[in-house]
Amino acid sequence: MRILTACAAASAAAASLLAVPASAQSVDDIVAKHLAARGSYEKIKAIQTLKITRTVATPFTSVKVVVFKKRPALVRFEQTALGQAAAVPRGINADAVWDSGPGGKVTTRAPQFATEAREIDGDFDGLLVDWKEKGHTVTREGKEALTGWEGYNLKVTTKGGVVRHIYIDTATYLDRRHAGTVTLPPPANAPAGAPARQYTFVSDFSDWKEVNGVKFPFAVDEDRVGGGPAQSFATYTEKMEANAPMEDAMFGPPAPPSGN
Fold it and tell me: Does the domain formed by 46-251 have CATH 2.50.20.10?
């Protein structure tokens, strides 16, 4: 009887472990499954550079954007609007976060804006990869029913204080939605003392494809509010190339136009 009782107790304990609901998963559990769903931590880290060719469409126009990324935190964006002769670059390197303005003028972002750009745009792998080592905080805010799917709401507070909500699909463990607030410096041609630009956004990711064994979303739909009229963007990735050679020098700001 004692042996049967012990076996029954062991079986009950095992059953209780198996019966732990998905909602009880810890942040570490969810992140581990997320990395596995993308391909694996090792495959993510094996990618050293990325060249991403995209079209960003709005209700009024479309823009061609080419993004160059290199570890650990080098980024260059080249944006070409319809009818524009040359790309307008902006970027992040070890020295500065910089933007190109009218007439080719290059401006450097102030520290409070540069920190956010480095932590978000400059993050090569994504906020959840090595989040503890980066000094971020991640908390599980619950599980939410969204349109056609269900997601874990992970609240990420970066080391610099930027807050993002990342929604992990409970079925695929891919990050299907990001939401938060973005703060940008005033436009380059704004008068002195102009306030920062701030907007709240929701980005939904889809059309996941493998690049070097790692899944990336090739379609992003984003809605923004704040700082003016509401805006909508649809981003389509035409090509994503991994481990193409890139020199560090390409991530620096362009030389000023002659005569300046």
Answer: yes
